C-alpha cells in the first residue's frame, strides 16, 4: 500500500497549475497510482472552480466580444483525443512500462555507472532536473544530502532507506535536512526531480562526483 | 458571504437580481452538451458570456496583464468549443471542467513565457479523457488481433467509443446512447462513419 503521498500544499499547487512542470509530472504519475490523492485532486479542482467562477461580474453585460466569438465558432472542427499506446524502456535486461504521463514526453538513453543508470526527461524546467533513475538489484546510492530538494517517486520494484521500505507509487520529498542511503535488493525504477547537485557525505568525494552528476 | 453592494444587472438566463446568484450549473452543463452534440452556437454564446469575464478576472490575477488575460480567455474558450465532447456530466460540474481547461491553458502559457521551447504538456499532466473509461479491458479479451486494434486507434475518440460499445461490449445502440448521453441518431451516424473509415483503412485485406 502507498504510504507516502504529496503534501496537501503540493496537491493544492498541482491542481491550481502552479507547480513546476517536472514536479507536476511527478504528482500526475502518483495521482494515477493513488485513488486517495485522485479523489483529493477532484475535490480541490471543484473547490477552486467555485472560488474562481463565483461572484458577480459587473461587466458581464457589455463584455461580449463578438469578434472573438465569431473567430472561435467559425471553425466547426473538434479536437480528437487519441489514446497513447504505452511505451517501455529496457534497462539491464529488464523491461519497464512507463507511466501514461511520460508517453509523449521524450527521455534520453540510459547512462550507466555501476548499478545506477539514469535517463534524462526532456523537460526544460529551470534548475529542476527530472530523470528516470534505475538501481540494479543489490545496488545503493551512497549517503548524500543536497542544498535543494530531491523528489523520488518509485515507479516499479522496491527500495528501502533508514526510514523504511517503499512500494510503487510512494512519493518521497526530501530536503537538505535529510541524509539517506537508498538501497534495493531486487532493483527499481524511479522518477526523480532534483533541484541541485548532491553532496556526498562519506568516502572520497572526488570518486563520488560522477554519481552526483549522474543523479542530478 | 453576503455582499452589501447594490447590484444592477443579472446573470444571463438566471433571471435573478441577487448579489451572489447560484451558479446556473444545469444550464451550463446543458449548454456544453448542446455544443458537443450540435455545435450549438446559441448554447456556446451562453458559456462565452458566462465565463469570459470570469476567466479574464482570473487571467489578470495570474499574469498581471490585460493582454495575456485576454489570450487566456481566447485559449480557454477555444478549447471549450473544440473539446466540449470530452465533458461528461457524471464527472462533475461544468464549471469544474471549464476550470480545468482554463488551468491547463494557463499552465501552458506560463511555460511558454519561461521557456523558449514551444511545448504544451498540460494535457500530459492533466489528461482531459479519463484513462479508466469503460471499454479498456474488454478490449484485450476480445480483440487479440493487434492490427484491428491499430485500425480502431486511428478512429476519432467519439467514433471509437461507439464501435467498442456496440461490437465489443455488446450494448444495443439505445443502451449506448443512454450510456454516452447522446441521441440514438448520433450513435447511428458515428457508427456509420466509423465503419466506413475502417473499411477504407483495412482495404482489400479484409473483405
UniProtKB/TrEMBL annotation, chain A:
<keyword id="KW-0614">Plasmid</keyword>
<protein>
    <submittedName>
        <fullName>Anti-ECFsigma factor, ChrR</fullName>
    </submittedName>
</protein>
<dbReference type="InterPro" id="IPR025979">
    <property type="entry name" value="ChrR-like_cupin_dom"/>
</dbReference>
<dbReference type="InterPro" id="IPR041916">
    <property type="entry name" value="Anti_sigma_zinc_sf"/>
</dbReference>
<dbReference type="InterPro" id="IPR011051">
    <property type="entry name" value="RmlC_Cupin_sf"/>
</dbReference>
<feature type="domain" description="ChrR-like cupin">
    <location>
        <begin position="130"/>
        <end position="193"/>
    </location>
</feature>
<dbReference type="InterPro" id="IPR012807">
    <property type="entry name" value="Anti-sigma_ChrR"/>
</dbReference>
<dbReference type="Pfam" id="PF12973">
    <property type="entry name" value="Cupin_7"/>
</dbReference>
<dbReference type="InterPro" id="IPR014710">
    <property type="entry name" value="RmlC-like_jellyroll"/>
</dbReference>
Automatic annotation (TrEMBL), chain B:
<keyword id="KW-0731">Sigma factor</keyword>
<keyword id="KW-0805">Transcription regulation</keyword>
<comment type="similarity">
    <text>Belongs to the sigma-70 factor family. ECF subfamily.</text>
</comment>
<keyword id="KW-0804">Transcription</keyword>
<dbReference type="InterPro" id="IPR036388">
    <property type="entry name" value="WH-like_DNA-bd_sf"/>
</dbReference>
<dbReference type="InterPro" id="IPR039425">
    <property type="entry name" value="RNA_pol_sigma-70-like"/>
</dbReference>
<keyword id="KW-0238">DNA-binding</keyword>
<dbReference type="InterPro" id="IPR013324">
    <property type="entry name" value="RNA_pol_sigma_r3/r4-like"/>
</dbReference>
<dbReference type="InterPro" id="IPR013325">
    <property type="entry name" value="RNA_pol_sigma_r2"/>
</dbReference>
<protein>
    <submittedName>
        <fullName>RNA polymerase sigma-70 factor, ECF subfamily</fullName>
    </submittedName>
</protein>
<dbReference type="Pfam" id="PF04542">
    <property type="entry name" value="Sigma70_r2"/>
</dbReference>
<feature type="domain" description="RNA polymerase sigma-70 region 2">
    <location>
        <begin position="47"/>
        <end position="112"/>
    </location>
</feature>
<dbReference type="InterPro" id="IPR007630">
    <property type="entry name" value="RNA_pol_sigma70_r4"/>
</dbReference>
<dbReference type="InterPro" id="IPR007627">
    <property type="entry name" value="RNA_pol_sigma70_r2"/>
</dbReference>
<dbReference type="InterPro" id="IPR014284">
    <property type="entry name" value="RNA_pol_sigma-70_dom"/>
</dbReference>
<feature type="domain" description="RNA polymerase sigma-70 region 4">
    <location>
        <begin position="152"/>
        <end position="200"/>
    </location>
</feature>
<dbReference type="Pfam" id="PF04545">
    <property type="entry name" value="Sigma70_r4"/>
</dbReference>
<feature type="compositionally biased region" description="Polar residues">
    <location>
        <begin position="1"/>
        <end position="17"/>
    </location>
</feature>
<feature type="region of interest" description="Disordered">
    <location>
        <begin position="1"/>
        <end position="22"/>
    </location>
</feature>
Amino acid at each position: 500500500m502507498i504510504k507516502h503521498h504529496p503534501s496537501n500544499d503540493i496537491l493544492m499547487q498541482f491542481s491550481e497549475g502552479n507547480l513546476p512542470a517536472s514536479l507536476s509530472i511527478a504528482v500526475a504519475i502518483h495521482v494515477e497510482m493513488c485513488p486517495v490523492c485522485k479523489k483529493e485532486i477532484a475535490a480541490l479542482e471543484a473547490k477552486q472552480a467555485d472560488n474562481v467562477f463565483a461572484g458577480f461580474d459587473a461587466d458581464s453585460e457589455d463584455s461580449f466580444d463578438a469578434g472573438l466569438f465569431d473567430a472561435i465558432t467559425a471553425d466547426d472542427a473538434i479536437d480528437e483525443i487519441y489514446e497513447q499506446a504505452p511505451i517501455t524502456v529496457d534497462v539491464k535486461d529488464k523491461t519497464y512500462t512507463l507511466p501514461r504521463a511520460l508517453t509523449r514526453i521524450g527521455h534520453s538513453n540510459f547512462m550507466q555507472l555501476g548499478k545506477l543508470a539514469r535517463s534524462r526527461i526532456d523537460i526544460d524546467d529551470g534548475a529542476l532536473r527530472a530523470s528516470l533513475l534505475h538501481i540494479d538489484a543489490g545496488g545503493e546510492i551512497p549517503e548524500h544530502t543536497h542544498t535543494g530538494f530531491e523528489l523520488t517517486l518509485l515507479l516499479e520494484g522496491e527500495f528501502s532507506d533508514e526510514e523504511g521500505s517503499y512500494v510503487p507509487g510512494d512519493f518521497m520529498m526530501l530536503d537538505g535536512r535529510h541524509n539517506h542511503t537508498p538501497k534495493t535488493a531486487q532493483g527499481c525504477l524511479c522518477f526523480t526531480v532534483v533541484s541541485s547537485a548532491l553532496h556526498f557525505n562519506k568516502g572520497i568525494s572526488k570518486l563520488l562526483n560522477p554519481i552526483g552528476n549522474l543523479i542530478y | 458571504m453576503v455582499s452589501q453592494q447594490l447590484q444592477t444587472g443579472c446573470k444571463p438566463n438566471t433571471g435573478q437580481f441577487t448579489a451572489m446568484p447560484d451558479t446556473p450549473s444545469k444550464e451550463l452543463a446543458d449548454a456544453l452538451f448542446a455544443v458537443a452534440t450540435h455545435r450549438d452556437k446559441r448554447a456556446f454564446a451562453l458559456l462565452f458570456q458566462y465565463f469570459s469575464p470570469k476567466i479574464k478576472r482570473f487571467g489578470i490575477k495570474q499574469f498581471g496583464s490585460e493582454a495575456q488575460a485576454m489570450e487566456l480567455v481566447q485559449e480557454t474558450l477555444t478549447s471549450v468549443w473544440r473539446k466540449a465532447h470530452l465533458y461528461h456530466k457524471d464527472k462533475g460540474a461544468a464549471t469544474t471542467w471549464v476550470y480545468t481547461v482554463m488551468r491547463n491553458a494557463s499552465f501552458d502559457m506560463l511555460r511558454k513565457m519561461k521557456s523558449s521551447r514551444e511545448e504544451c504538456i498540460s494535457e500530459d499532466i492533466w489528461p482531459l479523457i479519463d484513462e479508466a473509461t469503460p471499454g479498456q479491458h474488454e478490449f484485450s479479451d476480445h480483440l487479440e488481433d493487434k492490427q484491428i486494434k491499430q485500425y480502431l486507434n486511428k478512429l476519432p475518440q467519439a467514433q471509437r467509443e461507439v464501435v467498442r460499445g456496440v461490437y465489443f461490449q455488446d450494448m444495443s445502440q439505445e443502451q449506448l446512447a443512454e450510456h454516452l448521453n447522446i441521441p440514438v441518431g448520433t450513435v447511428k451516424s458515428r457508427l456509420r462513419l466509423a465503419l466506413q473509415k475502417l473499411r477504407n483503412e483495412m482495404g482489400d485485406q479484409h473483405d
